[in-house]
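Escalation from tier 1.

The customer reports that the assembly of two entities below gives different structure tokens on two consecutive runs. Tier 1 could not reproduce it. I'm attaching the input and our single run for tier 2 to review.
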Amino acid sequence: MVVGEITQERDLIIIGGGPGGYNAAIRAAQLGLEVTLVEKADIGGVCLNKGCIPSKVYTHSASKLDDMKNFSSLGIETSKPMMHIDQLQEYKNSVVENLRKGVEALCKANKVEVLSGTASFLTEDKIGVEEGHNFDVYKFKHAIIATGSTPISPENISIDNTRVFNSHSIFDLKEIPEHLVVYGSDYIALEIAMSFHHFGAKVSFVLDEQKDSFEFDDSINRELQRILKKAKIKLYKKHELLAQSVTESEISLTLHNDKGDEVSVTGTHLFVSYKNQPNLNSLGIDRLKMEVNEDGFIITDNQARTSIGNIFAIGDVTEGKQLAVKAIKQGKVAAEAIAGQTPEVDLTFIPTVVHTTPPIATVGLTEAEAKEAGHNVKVSQFSLSGNGYATILGKKDGFAKIVTDQDTEVIVGVHVIGAGAVELITSGSIALEMVAREEDMTFPLYPHPSINEGLLEAVEALKGQAIHLPPTKQK
Amino acid sequence: MVVGEITQERDLIIIGGGPGGYNAAIRAAQLGLEVTLVEKADIGGVCLNKGCIPSKVYTHSASKLDDMKNFSSLGIETSKPMMHIDQLQEYKNSVVENLRKGVEALCKANKVEVLSGTASFLTEDKIGVEEGHNFDVYKFKHAIIATGSTPISPENISIDNTRVFNSHSIFDLKEIPEHLVVYGSDYIALEIAMSFHHFGAKVSFVLDEQKDSFEFDDSINRELQRILKKAKIKLYKKHELLAQSVTESEISLTLHNDKGDEVSVTGTHLFVSYKNQPNLNSLGIDRLKMEVNEDGFIITDNQARTSIGNIFAIGDVTEGKQLAVKAIKQGKVAAEAIAGQTPEVDLTFIPTVVHTTPPIATVGLTEAEAKEAGHNVKVSQFSLSGNGYATILGKKDGFAKIVTDQDTEVIVGVHVIGAGAVELITSGSIALEMVAREEDMTFPLYPHPSINEGLLEAVEALKGQAIHLPPTKQK
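Tier 1 run:
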């Protein structure tokens, strides 16, 4: 190894070029800082290259296949679709490349110095960057750790990328499984299950860790289960995973159901989305005595600052939900704090989005969480079957649900499953952040006809005043 | 004619069962009033039966045809689509019937008395309702006029419903025109032009009244014109309409361009969306000396009350924009006022939505309006070509534009053209109504990847801090 002769000096070094890292880098550059970004693989990180973006390409294709069910009503005659997963993968690769090049160009335009290599802390103000035979040492004023996470599997499952896949490998699977078994419960497990269902695979879904449901508001969980059932996706709840076996043509999971009976689920392929561990092993933060929680995630304050004052940490390496939206926000806030501003990241109202068919988007407290938090809870729900625009779309599954504090009429949660949920959820986010009361959401005008009116009517239903719900169905 | 022997008494009589009327009726019933709704044709009015709903069925079909351009990228192999407008019309009819029956059932469930017939005021507290040979007289405490409007044509165009159509007849046209000429500039002209373009017609578009553009924010107007051009829809601006001629197989418009040269536009069919006149002719409001403006529209206060204290008017018969969203809001407010509440309708932030491909949705002031209103205006714009989710969708046309007051940082206008615009616009409406400042829109978390992030980046661009815009393109 060739160790650089001199220690180079840098203002801000960001380790990891995923969404958190590159958003931090560009925001810091916008604020006048000189920024160095160290990435050992591809700019864009797991989210862009192997996670959220590829998954959305798949779910988008799946939703277009789903749309075709209504084509003949809409006067559109066409042949039964054939799915070519190789073409979809080419498109996925071109989208990923296109976006990655875009981010690289933005880094360049913002004069962000990009170093290729693996970084590790030497002291609280020095890191080494190893690339091939070179090892360069940099002294920094500030650093941001944005190294992300890596999927891990349950003990008794091993990923072979031939029959058994995780999120890093599933998007390279060159065939549509005859029978895909999904083990997990998170957004990517749901997106994979729904995508391959639409692509023509038989899908079975085993909830991980003996869960008895997904982790949304109970009403969403129920609707989602109804939708999975309608799609003939069999759901295994409260089953303990005992063993996995793989042959040349099959995979099989051995489970115990909640009565202790042995159940076997056999398919042709297995997809596992279990947990992600923070990428901290080779980073040397133990050397720095940086505070981590019991699961090994870095503890940060509301400016994404670690226990070491000049080092920040963002995204999947930190405590809490592992979502790109969190990494992006923390990244911007860290950059702003380093630039001398006084920003704050508040993850209370982090939106969760799943591109199932129909999509799910929620923000704020579930009904159960609101009760647990001590609110005098009032809820209401408006089914999209009562929404004119959903009728036009032929997409009447789903609803909007509102959770409020009865005493203050402040809205504390917005939960949508149905067409347009993702785009609509930002109405909820803005309302929650602005401490909107019911009337703040009923006063504005909602375009007609639109799915948006479903959100309005959900709020109106709190007072028994949804127009398109019969009086008996309203409190 | 058989005149009813006795004058019957009613609390609240609503004349007209369109979106304004039926929303008013149901809201009034929800608040404990006894409600009588008089409708001479179909419940749901023009919007449901002949206007916005049918138009959205057409635009939805058109958008699905447009989606198919990306199918092969998405791995979906299918044959070239054939468009069957008769099937689409069947679907349109079934949607309309389904929705109308839904509204009828809701009226029933809310114990709204529905009378079939034509109403006219006899005095300030009496109306007659004529149905066939019967004429019944009703004394009322309150009345709401919700009779809507009827499309009219320019002097030199006559609608024959064979070659020349307006919005009441175009949705029954049984063929796809070889060459459709559209005369107008409003949302329905745009929706018809775009729909038939996707259905395979050649489309030419003549702006009415010698307009030189559409009536959105200038940036939207430009993007829309670019999109029309890309769709090979020829746009005639600043042309004066001189004459129309119709043969058995052709229609032709004779125009003068702005240089005074004669221009002829010939097609196989003509669609006209010009103006709508209030349906007040047989209503007898002149007898009541009700105040109307110079164009004959009823003047109302911010509770939708006319100059006669116990009579309210809502929707297209009143001054201002002729949009269902206005009628619905005014209807609810009128009902609440009559029930003794103190509601208010504020139409400042009325959303305008057009289901072109891509859709347009705007709320609040345009840049020009904001300047005229005396704001120290600052604007920013974020192109969807920089949005990751738009890239996945293959829908990179369009942008989000924000108009703010520089001195207060209060947002005064949100303008979106692009995928997801309609669902996204309610974020803008809520923000505007809550007097959001820039930071109220940058503080919340936006799901990743999503079109929603385009809205965020448009706001961030106000300070030169959109992540996905190079520094040179931001101020």
